[in-house]
Amino acid sequence: MHPAAAQPSRIVVCIHGFGGFRWQLVPLASSLKRCGFNVYNYGYAARKHTLEEHGLHLAAFLASIATESGLRSDAFPTRLGSISFVTHSFGGVVLREALTGTAWHTARLTPEAARRGRAVCLGPPFGGVALARALRHREAHGRMPYRIIERLARTLLGPAAGRELLEMPAEWFLRRGGMPDSMPVLVIAGDMGPINPLITRTRSPEVRSQESAWGRGQIISNAASEVAPSDGIVGVHETWLPSRHWFLRVRLPHHMLLYAPSVMEATAQFLLAQGDDALFGYKLAGVAFRNERYKVAGDPDTEAESTDRR
Questions:
Q1: Most trustworthy range by pLDDT among 82-91, 270-279, 290-299
Q2: What are the residues whose beta carbons fall under 8 Å from the beta carbon of 144, sequence distance 6 or more?
Q3: In the beta sheet, which residues pair with residue 13?
Q4: Which of 110, 214, 237, 299 is the most buried (most CB within 10 A)?
């Protein structure tokens, strides 16, 4: 058992990615159970519903957990009376929707306990999926028989959330905002280098200017596309969350993020962390990540360490 474990009352909900299954998170869920967490493995039919509908369904599931566990009351001011999360890929987008979208602002389904826990998001496409958008015929520029590929992609991804991944620009996903301010979030992004030529990013003057404010360097005037570092499925830049969060870059492909022992250890340490989160970086540095970069993204107090997503 993890030396810091011990509060079995802590609840963690695991959420798989688009087209994934609950069994994919069984190894990670098992490691969290050994740390004393009460783990729920949430499953959903990604192809059948829109992102907004997925958010509503997850919020209703969380409300049932909160009621069952007696967490709907405000009598639990600490994170021991909260619900934390571990998500993979699109599961992180669904979680954001449940915590800050219609389910929270309009339907008021999301329990407060879910907004004051912690979250670890593995390879989350918070900024959309360039790989999916690249499969559209109008993006092909004659390079491949994309009409056939697009039809196949639409069939496989479905008419709801899959269609949103295919058609909606990165701005549509980013406009959905970040996580609640009360929730500490760790984003772990796989970086295998620019291995997938279909995952590109556009370097506009506005983007360079914004990133320069976080210490990225000078503004570049061109807006050319370039192949982006990725885990093979999701670009590192697409994991950026427009709210304060911790960020860790690891040299792992997309699906191996679920099974790497070092990622499991980092996940458990973050969920178990208490007190000053600024100290967490020192703990994480010793967990087989000697050559990886760790930082607080979006924190002006750590400007020299902030959002380098190259």
A1: 82-91
A2: none
A3: 40, 85
A4: 110
Q: Provide the number of structural domains found in the chain.
A: 3
d(CA 22, CA 181): 28
Asked if the structure places residue 284 within a domain, the reply is yes
What three-state secondary structure class fits 14?
Answer: strand
Contact 197, 179 (CB under 8 A): no
In contact, 14 and 28? CB cutoff 8 Å: yes
pTM score, whole prediction: 0.80
Pair 51, 157 in one domain: no
Neighbours of 197 (CB within 10 A): 10
Residue 1 lies in a domain: no
What pLDDT, in 10s, does the model give residues 128-144? 999 998 887 655 455 55
Cα separation, 190 vs 252, whole angstroms: 5
* Structural domain contains residue 28: yes
In CATH, what number is assigned to the domain containing residue 24?
3.40.50.1820
Helix (H, G, I), strand (E, B), or coil: what is residue 269? helix
